[in-house]
Write a structure and sequence with these properties.
single chain, 181 residues, five-stranded parallel sheet, 5 strands
Amino acid sequence: MKTILAISGSLRSQSSNTRLVQAIVGLAPPGITIEIYNGIARLPHFNPELEGAGDLVAVEGWRTQLQAADGVLFCTPEYAHGVPGTLKNALDWIVSSGEFMNKPTAVISASPSPDGGEKANASLVQTLRVMMADIQEESILCISAISAKINAEGEITDTSTEIALRSILQGLISKGNGLAY
């Protein structure tokens, strides 16, 4: 079975990006499991001096889930033209541990703004590529006016957005294992 780990860059339970991640789970084809990582809020502030010196259960859990995944999908908002601090903190914990080495990865940003959070998206792509994540151009998506494309129940209400999300999944799946749907 193919497993994709999906991560929302927002801590808000009803954020558009969290609802989008939840909706993407429902778009998975048979044989593909999308697991949502819900541990970002539990990660301590990054401090390299803590490595090997303390109780880092949340960090080890984060690393373990990343290692077990065949692919990773991020969905992030944009805060002040950048990636939310909690998401950057999560990435800082794995900069040198190798979980993203050649790992098929997709990056989505969703925003009410007309640019769809493109600055946060570009920043996240750059950070992940430095960490050696395998991000193809077809695995990058900015979704503008997100509040008009997903409802409060987490249902995608815009056909072109659903098609784009299915395409992102297809690219991630086929890159990771030669599978197609």
